[in-house]
Amino acid sequence: MKTPICGICMNSDMLCMACQKKLDDGSISEADVRLARAVKTLASTFKVLDNITIKKVLEGSTIIVMLCCRGDRPKLVGREGVVINRLSKMMGKTVRVIEETEDMKEFIKNIIHPVPLEGINVVYSTDGENLKVIIPRNRNLPMSELSFREIIKMVFGRNAVVAKA
Ligand SMILES: [Zn+2]
User: Fold this and answer.
1) pLDDT score recorded for residue 153
2) Domain boundaries, the chain
3) In Å, how far are 5, 8, 23, 59, 75 from 16, measured between CA atoms?
4) Which of 96, 125, 127, 132 has the most CB atoms around it within 10 Å of its CB?
């Protein structure tokens, strides 16, 4: 299993110096640490979790988005959602699993679900090309806009803004 923290820290209540440094400099978050440990705990019951990779975890006010490698999603969801439900209970928030993908539109649709995606435009500003992600006027993202922007930046290396139609 690969997660944002090392194997030793997944099994421990403490962080090693290397992982603590990552937490201090902001390259990993508390959510990365907590979720990695929760998945590691579940791996003793669900052996299939031993070979998954979690790239990044982002925590919003009501949901936690876990970004995993291609093909790992079914393992992290489990049969009839058994794994993801257990994880959500352990984390105290709805956990959503998203696979890394090249298809940006599909990816954005998945992370903002159940809010419908009205469209994606490219807008040009002084800092370059930005993505304008359009959602219905009467809806809100299931996470903060900051978390959303972080996810898009991390996965696609692009700046995004959210606009309401
Ligand atoms: Zn460590």
Assistant:
1) 83
2) 1-100, 117-165
3) 9, 8, 11, 22, 28
4) 96
* Ligand 1 ion: Cβ-proximal residues, 5 Å cutoff: 6, 9, 16, 19
What residue ranges of the chain have pLDDT lower than 50?
none
> Given this model, what pLDDT does residue 125 score?
84
Contact 84, 95 (CB under 8 A): yes
Instruction: List the structure tokens of 148.
Output: 């959303």
Residue 161 and residue 76: Cα distance in Å, rounded?
29
In angstroms, what is the span from residue 9 Cα to ligand 1's centroid? 4
Give me the pLDDT at residue 110, please: 85
pLDDT at 26: 92
What CATH code is assigned to 1-100?
3.30.300.20
Q: Is the pTM of this model over 0.85?
A: no
